[in-house]
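User: Is it possible to get a 3D structure for a protein together with its bound compound? The compound here is zinc ion. I've pasted both below.
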Amino acid sequence: MNFNFTDIGKYLLHILLPKTCLHCLKDLPWESDRALCSVCESALEPLPELHCARCGLPLKYGGATCYDCRGQKSAGAALDLARSAFIFNSELRSLIHAFKYSRMESLAVPLSEAMADTFDRFTELKDYKFVLAVPLHPSKKKERGFNQSELLAGKLAAAKHLFLLENTAARALNTKPQVSLSKEERAGNMKGAFKITRPELVKGRDILLVDDVATTLSTLEELAGELKKHGAKRVAALTLAREP
Ligand SMILES: [Zn+2]
Ligand SMILES: [Zn+2]
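Assistant: Yes, that's possible. Here is the predicted structure of the complex:
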């Protein structure tokens, strides 16, 4: 076996601190740079080909749009389009949880690579050149140390040569966590949650929102509405995960 010094270093580090798969906790091969083992990594599910043309919801039985997007519910929607890299399954949940709460910022690289691939995959996103991360409330950002969406947005913009809109929107309200609420309560919870701090950067532009997980889309819809009030032409969203 031919070792170089970096390999020897990695091997020794593995003996001292074995790396384990973030999801199943099995030991990873010593030379692995991955966060998941190969079994868990292959369990990540890209957004299926059959999905709603507007909101990106996976559609088991095909069709152009989902039930909500066909009906009146989305008639006045501000969000024009939503796409995601993956379905929110348990393997992806482990990755996102480690990224958000265990401060594994190193995960920003592979996760934003997946976002960049997804941007290429869905050519309907190609005209959205202005990237905006969904802002966190300052107190949440302080608590967490960083905004995971900002990290993803920055790396996506760099990889795809898009313009990153920084300090353009802010969280005006520290809302309750959406997971603690019913589907109906979520839209109300987000009302007035955002303010646009630099409207001159928004006017007349096609803006791509970036977030980690999309569930009911009420957060993205609220921010899209605020952007449109300030003259944004079109607003789309790209998220890492889609919770069906
Ligand atoms: Zn695993
Ligand atoms: Zn839909």
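Strands lie at 81-87, 130-133, 163-164, 169-171, 194-196, 206-214, 234-242. Residues 45-242 form a domain with the Rossmann fold fold (CATH 3.40.50.2020).
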